[in-house]
Amino acid sequence: MSRPRPVRRPRRALPLVFGRLTLVCALTTTLVISPRQVRADDAADLNAARVKFQRALELKQAGDFSGALKLFRQVGQVKMSPQVRYHIATCEEEMGQLVAALGGYEIALSQYAPEMPREFLAEVQTSIKGLRARIPKLVLSRGAGAEAATIELDQVKLGESSIGTAIPVDPGPHALVSRAPGFADYSRTITAVETQTEAVTIELVELPPETTDRAAEPRTGYGAWPFVLGGVGVLGLAAGAVLLPVSQGKVAQVRNICGGTDCSNLTDRTEWERARSLANDARTLETAGWIAGGVGVATLAVGVVLLLVDPSRNTNDGVEVGEHLALLPSAPGSQAGFSLVAAF
Question: Can you give the residue ranges of every domain in the chain?
Fold first, then answer.
């Protein structure tokens, strides 16, 4: 019997093995180096936070509560401790943000009470008790017309659970707004005073029904078009009034040359050409005069009509001609006509 030949495992390509070894070495190096790097970064952040904390204490001692509050919050983003939370709340209290300060004290008490020294714990509890007595409150209720209205306090829409209950607010002015369809908007500024509770009943006034009064409606008119058309009409009439007499003058010259209306008896060629030219000019001027006059009459009529029906100038039954003048479509003592009424 022949011995079975040993099965040879295929050799892995050298680049593949080298690549895997490199990956393992990289991962091992990362796992070893990363914690040290993180610890180094944490230490640097803590050192910077300590510097900011000391600077914030100095600002607070100097009365710059806004600057101190900003630094204390930056310290809290690195490491929030009972002391940091307490100092944030005290700065908010000094700046008049009593509601936020009370929340900060209560969070410090609930989260860090086991870690607080007894004296520090007593100081926090005293601050909470004093703030609860100082914070003013608003009690809002719905009155007539506000049963389904939306209510906003300082641009924040209130839920139904906030209506009828005491709402803690900071001392100072607060904007109260309420709206409902068909009612006028309710707007009021309430000045909250420390230790006081103010009750406010919101009542909305119903809007009157919409009317079709022409005086209340915006008027849109024809603007300057009636006057433009009227001007064009006047110019057309003036042109017709000039051209027609001129054409008649040309006709008179032809009659003088021909001795009447018949020029067929003229033997002089020059005179005949002159009479013919004058006759052509007369016909052209007459036609232009009648056209200008017709256009003038038409445009003037359109301008007058537009002026009479222009809604932006109508005053009840008349048309405003000027500040103190009105053109009325009636004439006392006659069946038809217009009257010009003046008021001074």
Answer: 16-134, 137-202, 226-297
